Amino acid sequence: MRLSIISDEVHEDPSIAFRTIKEEGYNSVELHSAFAKPIEEWNASELAEIKRRLKEYDLTVSNLSSTIFFVCPLYEGDEVTGFSDGFYQVYGDVEAHLNHLKRTCEVAEELESPVIRLFPFRFPNNRKPPFGDQEDMERIVEAVNRACDVAEPYGVTLAVENCPYSRLPKGQMTLELIQKVNRDNLGLLYDPANSYRAERVNVPERYLNMDLYEETRLVAPWIRHVHVKNYHYDPSVSPKPFLHVDAGSGDIDFEKLIAIIEESGYQGAYSLEPEVDEEGTIRSMRWMKETFGK
């Protein structure tokens, strides 16, 4: 089983992050940002530095965690804002994002990353939920088809993440997108914790009929990369009752869930995205290594 972790979850400085990751017994990293910028904006010298550090610590790259189609309006007039100051992302319309994707494909080729993440368009601030209706889906299908065209010459797989801040937060919804696009170089970046915490008010009712493990069994054949993090639901905490916790201590039974994914013949990486403090990140890394590092 290939275990990985998003490097900037460990430390923003890649040299410190890579050293810690190697010391904890991991041989693979997922890359989202370094040098206070997302991978899409790395210049040649920054890319060379990343490549040198990967070689120094004998690490491979499991996925480039790009922000393509995240802060990107799906409709004219959409007001779409960035996520947070510490989450580095690219901006612009679909054309701008496709240009960023071309650069990301070049980085993937250089770093031998088999997968690049895409988002199914962040939901806007000025429109009311639910999102992910038929018109949304048709527009996203068109954009993702164009992204597949960009990526095809590079031999890299694009993986759309079911993001709770996007128009397709549930794995079941993102699967429908992938099936409609129906391209060999497209799959699912499955984040089961994102499905678990997706706000029901944002999701059309027809996608609320499965529990997490039923959904995992449904989407498993299309998974090309997996994110691992956990939440504990506490209804007494308002307005955000889904609390970030160590990966091994939340509400999601990852041993059960990963067993389902493995039954499908999945060959990709399981990549930690702890979203907790430094100590919790190390605990999560050790739990994952002890539980699945066989």
List its salient traits.
8-stranded parallel beta barrel; globular; 294 residues; 12 strands; TIM Barrel; 9 helices; alpha/beta
Explain what the structure shows.
By secondary structure, the protein is an alpha/beta fold. The protein has one domain (about 1-290): Divalent-metal-dependent TIM barrel enzymes (TIM Barrel). It has 9 helices and 12 strands. It has helices spanning about 15-25, 45-55, 95-110, 135-150, 170-180, 190-195, 210-220, 255-265, 280-290, and strands at about 1-5, 30, 35, 35-40, 60-70, 115-120, 155-160, 185-190, 225-230, 230-235, 240-245, 270. α3 (about 95-110) crosses α4, α4 (about 135-150) crosses α5 and α7 runs parallel beside α8. The protein starts with a strand and ends with a helix. The model has no long low-confidence stretch (mean pLDDT about 95).
Mean pLDDT, all residues: 96
User: What's the tally of helices?
Assistant: 9
> What integer value in Å does the Rg equal?
18 Å
Q: Classify the fold: give the CATH topology.
A: TIM Barrel
Spans of at least 5 consecutive residues with low confidence: none
CATH superfamily: Divalent-metal-dependent TIM barrel enzymes
Oligomer: single chain
